[in-house]
Amino acid sequence: MVSVCLSARRRPPPRPDRSGPVCPRPAAAFPLPASAGPGPFPRGGSGMAAGRSPPTFLLLGAAGGGKSLLVRRLRQLSAEEPAELGEPPATLPTVGTNLTDLRLPQKVTVRELGGCMGPIWPSYYSECSALLFVVDASNPTQVSSSCIQLLSVLSAEPLASVPVLVLFNKIDLPCYMSLVEMKSLFRMQDVVSCATQPITMLETSARNGTGLADVLQWLRTALKDPC
Ligand SMILES: Nc1nc2c(ncn2[C@@H]2O[C@H](COP(=O)(O)OP(=O)(O)OP(=O)(O)O)[C@@H](O)[C@H]2O)c(=O)[nH]1
Ligand SMILES: [Mg+2]
User: Average pLDDT, whole number, for the chain?
Assistant: First the structure.
């Protein structure tokens, strides 16, 4: 498992005025449960101190990349009494949004947005404290669309200073592309040098757990050091 942290070229833009209106949610098109829609709150851990909603980490990426399985595994591993991962539970494509609370031990909410929900991803950017972006490293046909999606996410103004973790998942599969190959295909050097966010990259397998301890460690660091 290889990990690399590139970045640090931060050019923090002025913070957006959080008292302004947030993007409207397409409630009629995608009705969400009441628990799925906290209002906007400050990034990082400050919401906790004020007794408000816990920080929300967004989990994005193309359909089938492994987001739902990943977050289930993270919940298993961060439980008070972590159990063996065992066989991966079945997942269904996420239509809408999927909320999972993790205790790191501070409570954090991970909001997965289904890959097929790309058009409404920006509606949730304003409540994001950190971003996880999952790429299927075993699927060469998804590389270019994932790269375009990542560039679009990185250029979104509300996300300009949130820490970003790019996960190259499914490295348990024999056909997976290594971190070196993925970095080359994504032109990561250029992406990182143009990005305003600190970007970390990890290789993972949500199936067998490879790299997930590093993901949890990254989440804990992001909670401690909000941008
Ligand atoms: N081999 C392998 N399969 C994985 C891994 N992660 C996820 N999968 C499988 O990939 C399929 C899709 O996984 P999901 O977690 O549902 O994908 P998703 O990104 O949530 O997809 P959407 O909700 O549609 O956006 C499932 O069959 C998972 O079991 C992995 O690391 N390795
Ligand atoms: Mg899903």
Answer: 82
Instruction: Determine the distance separating the centroid of ligand 2 and the alpha carbon of 73, expressed in angstroms.
Output: 13
pTM here is: 0.82
Query: What domains appear along the chain, each with residue ranges and CATH number?
Result: 43-224 (3.40.50.300)
Determine whether the shortest distance from the Cβ of 65 to ligand 1 is under 6 A.
Answer: yes
What's the 62 CA to ligand 1 centre distance in angstroms?
10
Most confident of 44-48, 77-81, 216-220: 216-220
Per-residue pLDDT tens over the stretch 117-169: 999 999 999 999 999 999 999 999 999 999 999 999 999 999 999 999 999 99
CA–chain centroid gap for 214, Å, is 14
Instruction: Determine if residue 94 is labeled as part of a ligand binding site.
Output: yes
**Ligand 1 contacts CB of residue 63 (under 6 A):** yes
pLDDT in tens, 44-59: 433 344 456 889 999 9
How far CA 118 is from CA of 61, 93, 95, 112, 148, in Å, comes to 9, 13, 11, 11, 12
